[in-house]
Design the sequence.
């Protein structure tokens, strides 16, 4: 349903940004070297890096989808706790870090600048309902993309296993089928989605629950 909202396509690269940052951070943690990240208008992205062959390629391959799913959970957890400001700051900070250190292609740079500006305006707009609408729109798009990504991997692993993204890379590193890795990503994303939706529903239930009535008897 988010696809029916005008300009919602612009925000789908938030998930891509977080996904590629996950790969970049994993590379640095594993003592590798990040060259650069590219973000594309079709919501795809790629991280170019150097890292030793061997076991390190496994956590590197897992990092993208895992990070994207956990970030969606983080956004909804902030919503449940009433800390939208923290979620806004996290989104802006990740975009600034991406712009400053990693992304260098034209579309990626322009998109990051635009997102930082739009996110900053939404953060300080003097209408709470607009801030909430914007925040939930971005959060649900991130959640949707974090689940649809693995579903697309499963499809690609059937059509052409060599083009199934991170699942293909993990298959080359481990010898296990790309389909298996795609299913692992999907299961993890669904568990995270369950937690995210639970946080969202908890807020709605809390609003519908009547305040307790206190009665005293003498």
Sequence:
């Amino acid at each position: 349903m988010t696809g029916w909202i005008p300009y919602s396509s612009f925000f789908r690269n938030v998930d891509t940004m977080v996904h590629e940052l996950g790969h970049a951070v994993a590379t640095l943690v594993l003592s590798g070297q990040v060259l650069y990240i590219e973000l594309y208008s079709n919501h795809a992205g790629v991280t170019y890096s150097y890292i030793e062959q061997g076991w390190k390629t496994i956590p590197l391959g897992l990092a993208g989808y895992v990070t994207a799913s956990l970030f969606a959970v983080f956004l909804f957890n902030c919503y449940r706790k009433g800390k939208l400001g923290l979620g806004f700051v996290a989104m802006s900070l990740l975009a600034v870090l991406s712009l400053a250190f990693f992304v260098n292609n034209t579309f990626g740079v322009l998109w990051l600048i635009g997102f930082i500006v739009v996110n900053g305006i939404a953060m300080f707009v003097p209408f709470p309902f607009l801030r909430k609408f914007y925040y939930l729109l971005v959060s649900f798009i991130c959640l949707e993309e974090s689940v649809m990504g693995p579903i697309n991997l499963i499809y690609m692993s059937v059509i052409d296993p060599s083009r199934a993204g991170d699942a293909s890379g993990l298959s080359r590193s481990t010898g296990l089928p790309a389909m298996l890795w795609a299913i692992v990503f999907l299961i993890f994303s669904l568990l995270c989605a369950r937690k995210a939706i639970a946080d969202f529903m908890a807020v709605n239930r809390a609003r519908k629950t009547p305040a307790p009535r206190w009665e005293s008897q003498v």
